[in-house]
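Here is an idea for our session: we take a single protein and study its fold together. To get us started, please write out a protein record for me. Once you have written the record down, we can walk along the chain together.
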Amino acid sequence: MSSEWITRNVLAPCEELAGLWESVILDAERKERLENQVLLSLSVRGKVPFSVSALHSLILLHGPPGTGKTTLARGLAQRLSASTAAKRMRLIEVDPHGLMSAEHGQSQQRVTELLCETIPGLCDDGLPAIVLLDEVESMAVARSEASLAANPADVHRATDAVLMALDRNADGFPHIVTLATSNFTRALDEAFRSRADLSLEIPLPDANAAEAIMREALRGFAVPFPALAELAESPEIGALAPLLVGLDGRQIRKLVSEAIAMRREVVLDPDRLSAADLQRAAEQVRFQSIGTEVLDATA
């Protein structure tokens, strides 16, 4: 039984998952909805037949890249482990890209082996488990859009294998919850999307969230560079927030290092970073983003 496509298999709580849930700045309502859906799946599916509940224990997190979908999914096992009877929860992370093969028929075989044999085998201790399928559009391709340049028959078979495995595991493994992330929901097969018990959008940060992300990033940099602690609490960061709207969380965090890199004296002494440096970096990133959008529109 191959596990070459498993990139992580850990029991939470553990050090490598600590702080991930809290690091994603997202409104409390969305976070609570996600927590509740996982706990509902784990508590109901073992008691109510699938023919009644229709719960597949599939949750789809979707939205632009860099919004924290993967981090949120990873941190969820740590977050909810204390709420389980065993006080532990398994996190299994899959690399869907590695499953897809150019060889005829191999993708279907690999998907079936992974979802119907490997993962249930790793979860045979009965502990509640979250299986993370990151960028799931690579293995649940919309069959109506299957490209003739690829192998449409193989794409159909691989997607069929995913759907079959979800149906089978929904009835047979009530302690397993599948979290899938996608940047491109239009590329996902409609039947896959219909099986999601919850489809939750993780949006780009609004001004308040962008400000919170920037302040948190600066506090992190302040650990080795203490002078940045004052900048992290400065009102000037709040004034900077409107410039950050439209950027994803990853871009906002990277602005700190980009701002440091703009001046040699700040590179040599990051404690000298100023709000003006951050504003300059934000303006440059926005300018680059607008240029990219124009190129995309004219392509």
